[in-house]
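Protocol step 4 of 6.
Sequence for ABC transporter ATP-binding protein (Microbacterium kribbense) entered exactly as in the expression construct, tag removed. Do not edit the line below.
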Amino acid sequence: MDEPTPVIELTAARKTYSSGQIEFEALRGIDLRVQSGEYLAIMGPSGSGKSTLMNILGCLDVLTTGSYRLGGDDVEQLSEAELARVRNHRIGFVFQQFNLLTSLSAWRNVELPMIYGKVDKSVRRQQAELALERVGLRDRLENRPGELSGGQQQRVAVARALASDPTMILADEPTGNLDSASTKEVLDLFDQLNDSGRTIVLITHELEVAQRARRIVTVRDGQITADAPVKAVAA
Ligand SMILES: Nc1ncnc2c1ncn2[C@@H]1O[C@H](COP(=O)(O)OP(=O)(O)O)[C@@H](O)[C@H]1O
Ligand SMILES: [Mg+2]
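Step 5 output, structure tokens:
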């Protein structure tokens, strides 16, 4: 039987940064396929190219050579407007710094990308409430980030990522600024999201965090050095 179209299909992906005379090859030939519903951790030491890879996967940056297909679409062929649509509708981003606006309540933060995404005003509030309910924050709609714990703030950020009903969640070191209790909160939430069918790509340099995923891809010096199901890694 034919495999379904992968959500992510990277082939011979290379990324070179140039600043002045100096060039640095941050991705050195990456091949990666991720199917719908997978929960993947990308692991590697600092400087190995994880964030570069996330920027490519999230259509925030483009490859120097090689190809990236997202849900079967050739990303290089998309116009700026189409790329913006992809980022808004198909990808939910979660960052280490929660990137919440401190002056806005939880639901207003969740609403924000829907404003950019031109979602109708009448449905934005409802969608925001639903997303916050899904992350267990139904009773914190009106609280500002400063009134929430780190784990709660990151869950607001996850709700914001979910509000556009994206195909995949891309999380770059989402627990990097969290204590162990809050880390558990966020990883438990990712489990639930994955159980309900979401594709998750979780970037981390911590093995304990990566082991909460189902598959671990290890990156070193811009290349994949290992790719294995979590049980095999843990054994
Ligand atoms: N904009 C940039 N210009 C030049 N070099 C960069 C840039 N971004 C990242 N790099 C370099 O690429 C390498 C990989 O960086 P990064 O993807 O941020 O790694 P990680 O997220 O694994 O720590 C590092 O050596 C970093 O210095
Ligand atoms: Mg990084």
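Step 6, annotate. The chain has a mean pLDDT of 93.
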